[in-house]
Here is the input.
Amino acid sequence: MAYEPPFEQTTEISNLCMEIAELVGMIHPTSELSTSPTLHRELRIRTIRSSLMIEGNTLSEEAVTAIMDGKRALGPAKDILEVKNAQRAYALAPSLDPYSVEDFLRAHREMMEGLVEGAGCFRAKNAGVFDGTELIHAGTPAGYVPSVIADLFAWLASTDLHPLLSSCIFHYEFEFIHPFADGNGRTGRLWHTMLLARWRPALAWLPVESVIRERQQDYYAALAQSNRDGSSEAFVTFMLRVIRDALRPFATPEEKRRERGQRALSYFAAHPKGTVPELADELGCSKRSAERIVAKLREDGLLVREGSARGGRWVVPGRPDGADAL
Here is the structure.
């Protein structure tokens, strides 16, 4: 009989799925999350740093940025190698088949090369999941790991469940099995993102790992609760909340996106010496959001910077309000 992970859909899970679907529907194909290289770079840096921080990496965002830009950074050699490996693994992800065990092992090898013996291979010894020194869960006995993983991937490829549900269930089952000697957490989070991206490509950039990092103890608590329950509902509910909250900043209706862009162009047409923080005050948004708006306008050729960063000025080609272009 084919393996079927224990799971029962609850009212809250159904409601979360509907809420996420509505948010995804607000992400326009031309939105920043879908198209902006500037935002993609920013989110990838945040994602990698957050996922590695969960595993104890101590590097600052500035150091991670430098490493990913190919520059030198100060820090423990192990932490630096973790960033380089994760960068390769995430870059490789679009070419991998999320339903392939072979590709799954390849991703782990990229993620853990030089950090653990047997990178890209299932563990040969028994192991467990720890939160600090506390054992949260004892993984599947090593001798059973290959067959159990094969069953899980066969289920993943054949299930009729919505990808939101199957990706969360897979994430829990993977962590329950704990198939590798090390690197299970970061590989599981990468694979979850890959499964979401297979459903909606823009979700490849969704900073799910950053939200998990902010709620790290809740992440472990949800895993532990599902272990006690013998079913994944608690973990699935937690992850759906994470996905929903990661989506909210990017699920801006197209009308609002256009309105913000138009207001930014009008502001710089009237204030050529204006700054991005001043624009943020004008729009009532964060400085980071204003930076993304400006970057998108510049990418589209709707806003031009003349002169230096300090002494230059903004130029809005064409109509000052940019209405035709937007």
